[in-house]
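Pilot study result, target chain (353 residues):
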Amino acid sequence: MAHTEMLPVVQDELKKRVDDMLKIELENMRLIAGVKAKKKKKGKKKGKKKKKKKGPKLPGLTKGFWDIPMKTHLENLVKENIVRKVPERSLSSFVGEFNYLHSMLDNIKDTPYDPSMALIRQLVTEYIIFPLGSELARKRHPEQIKSFLFYGPAGTGKTHVVEAIASETNSIVLDLSPVVLERAKAYLGGGKKKDDELIATVMFVAKEYQPSIIYIDEAEKVWPAKKKGKKGKKAKKDPNAPQRIKKTLAKWKGKFIEDSFRITIIGATSEPESCSKKEFKKFFDNSIYFPFPDYSTRRLMWKSFIEELGGELRADFPLSTLAHISHGFAAGAIRKSCESVLTNYRKTSVRAT
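Predicted structure:
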């Protein structure tokens, strides 16, 4: 009985002694060999909080930004005329027909012809109006295009089409054109901090009140081509120049605007040759060229503008002659010609005869 009870106690004591002796022997061997003993790694503390995954860091998001309600941000943009009411227009008011003659005669592979006004209407409807106006179309659209560039001669209807898109889709228009930025006193002279705050405000207002159009007219001033100066001399940068927003705008477009957002950035320029082509291609996903109207479109424009302004067209009125001699005229020039000629006196005198 005593033997069986005491045996486990003696064995445990012997094991401890043997272990201690082995440790001492190992330590002596390490000292002789000159090898330091490895330090035990500290065990990881339990209950450590996992790091939260942070979203993309975007410029302009200060602590005070979230303290201001989104409605107040919208009111501030309205005061600065960045959010503005555009005239109500329909896309059908962008007058023009398909260019059937070019489509039959020209070889598209070798020499692509200018798009007709009807083709521009079709492209705008498919790629901009449908995705902006319908959530379902935005989800199912095969190509999610966040930004578009409208380029072409002055007076060809670029701004007119933007206003038509806003009216057709009931979108809010946020204008970041250089002319508007120069007048936005609340965001002038504050340096990069104020510029970042402006873009952050515009983007969040656009998201909150979508569908939204961010419009940039005179885009050549925001993305200008680099000027070749004298060697060794660097041109002084104007802190209030329109190009101050381009880097911040690119970051927000790439990291903030998702495919599901009904937000489209539209830039317009009548001087594409004075822009940086590299930066344009990088920022804008697609582009549409607005050419001078062809013969059939000019004829239709003269007829529709004269009738719209209250003029009366007789059967023998020389519309074809007007269309021929106005070759190279933009739609805006034809409209102004009609407005300047069709005075109230002339309209009443024609009716009297």
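One observation from the pilot: Residues 1-33 form one domain. A full batch analysis is planned for the follow-on phase.
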